[in-house]
């Protein structure tokens, strides 16, 4: 699988280099960005080459993705911390309950489980009356 990834990556790299060489002049052409708000003078940027715009878009998208992932990790770490505290409290409670002495007066008397739906109605009435 590693070899397939390496071959595909190399093939994409070669195609990218070929694309860049064929479109060299287009990537060097410059564009001026303009931002207009009503009532204000329009804001114009300095001429930016196309490759600069592409790189800025890629970096901006990477930054937004990194912030999104970091926010998710922060929430997960906070949840983990809360669950660990709760788990520690429950473990402490369990240990304290394990160390309690068992006395005869505190032990509940168990009763046999009732059977529901088995047998006839007459058998159930006879068991309840007796």
Outline the secondary-structure elements.
Layout (H helix, E strand, L loop, with lengths): L1 H21 L1 H5 L1 E2 L2 E2 L7 E2 L3 E2 H49 L22 H9 L1
Antiparallel strand pairs: 1-4, 2-3
Walkthrough of the structure:
Helices cover 65% and strands 6% of the residues. By secondary structure, the chain is mainly α. Strands 1-4 form a two-stranded antiparallel sheet. A two-stranded antiparallel ribbon has the order 2-3. A hairpin with a 7-residue loop joins strand 2 and strand 3 (43-44).
- Give the oligomer, counting copies of the same chain as homo and different chains as hetero: single chain
Note the gap between the termini. 75 Å
Q: What order do the SSEs take from the amino end to the carboxyl end, as H and E? A: HHEEEEHH
Beta-sheet strand percentage? 5-15%
Output the radius of gyration: 37 Å
Estimated helix fraction: 55-70%
Structural class: mainly alpha
**What coarse outline follows from CA principal-axis ratios?**
elongated
Strand tally: 4
Low-confidence runs of at least 5 consecutive residues: none
